[in-house]
Design goal:
This protein has nine helices and 13 strands. The strands form three sheets. The protein has a six-stranded mixed sheet with strand order 3-4-5-6-7-8, with helices on both faces. A five-stranded mixed sheet has the order 10-9-11-13-12, sandwiched between helices. Strands 1-2 form a two-stranded antiparallel ribbon. The structure holds adenosine-3'-5'-diphosphate and magnesium ion (MG) (3 copies). One of its GO terms (biological process) is phosphatidylinositol phosphate biosynthetic process.
């Protein structure tokens, strides 16, 4: 069964276990205490956990799927990793499911895998570890189709640390229970470390009943999926394709929508520009278009020109 399953199913099943292994690395680096912080730019830290988790993920996926294009946030990594970091086992429970017909015949050259080994690095270094996620996004022919969002520091009721959420368009989601956000309120989730005046102007027009400021694209989309917020607003460039590929696929597999602030989907082919230059707008209801229209034209034009 496992080796005969369609390629998308095998990539998803290996990505689930690889994201979990990366989560262990992220917890271990924090436990050991020396984060090895390097500044990649303004408000853009990288730690030993980002570097090591990326090596683990890309080495494992490359070994099993050598002809598939993989793009990671932390650039070209040394893939000569210890056996302990090489994940070869696929998640068997995931493989038992039926592959949606649309993806059954996808070939290696149709795929790009977008890896954010640690989303929410600023929050990781500041102790907001529950905001941290590992993101593995799978694009087929330009579109975000499948995604894994692993939360290394999520405390399960059993006491176990970490949980892994997946979504595949046409199949659905797993690893959590979707909840609808409360009716009669409008709660926005947005950045806590990359705001600016223009972005704030876009948030303000919604006149939200609450604005949650949290780290990471993965964590913000989880808040939408778990009914903590109605919309994710980020009206400025800054986040990248590896931030949105997995969250977009998981959210849309559950009926939500993730686009730029003009309501257009991003493309995820291998040559696309990495920056999401027109921001992010994500929602769970069926009023995405209305939300897009609320964003003032002057903000839209200024973000487009940045
Ligand atoms: N102005 C900016 N410069 C660099 N990275 C940015 C950015 N704005 C957003 N990002 C990246 O987008 C992700 C989500 O940001 P935020 O938490 O502010 O919503 C983070 O990913 P990483 O933590 O993986 O780098 C963050 O670094
Ligand atoms: Mg980063
Ligand atoms: Mg990120
Ligand atoms: Mg990252």
């Amino acid at each position: 069964m496992a080796t005969n399953a369609p390629l998308i199913m095998r990539i998803m099943a290996l990505s689930i276990n690889t994201a979990k292994r990366a989560g262990v690395i992220i917890r271990d680096v924090l436990k050991q205490g020396d984060l090895g912080i390097v500044d990649k730019g303004k408000n853009d830290p990288q730690t030993e956990a980002d570097r090591s988790a990326q090596r683990c993920i890309i080495a494992s996926l490359t070994k099993k799927f050598p002809s598939i294009k993989i793009i990671g946030e932390e650039g070209g990594s040394d893939l000569n990793v210890c056996d302990d970091w090489l994940v070869g086992e696929q998640d068997e429970a995931f493989l038992k499911q039926i592959c949606p017909a649309a993806w059954q015949d996808a070939k290696p050259e149709d795929f790009v895998i977008w890896v954010d080994p640690l989303d929410g690095t600023a929050e990781y270094t500041q102790g907001y570890v529950e905001h941290v996620t590992v993101l593995i996004g799978i694009a087929i022919k330009n579109s975000a189709v499948g995604g894994i969002i692993h939360q290394p520091f999520y405390k399960q009721s059993s006491g176990e640390l970490g949980r892994t959420i997946w979504g595949l368009k046409g199949l659905g989601t797993g690893g959590f229970t979707p909840v609808k956000p409360p009716a009669g309120e409008f709660i926005i989730t947005t950045t806590r470390s990359h705001s600016n005046a223009l972005h704030q102007k876009a948030v303000d027009v919604f006149n939200a009943s609450k604005v949650l400021k949290v780290g990471g694209a993965g964590f913000k989309v989880l808040q939408l999926l778990e009914g903590k917020a109605h919309a994710y607003v980020f009206a400025t460039p800054g986040c990248k394709k590896w931030d949105t590929c997995a969250p977009e696929a998981v959210l849309e597999a559950n009926g939500g929508t993730l686009t730029n602030i003009n309501g257009e989907h991003y493309e995820y082919h291998a040559d696309v520009e990495h920056v999401n230059s027109r921001g992010v707008l994500a929602s769970v209801g069926n009023n995405h278009k209305e939300l897009v229209e609320k964003i003032p034209l002057e903000v839209r034009q200024a973000v487009g020109a940045m």
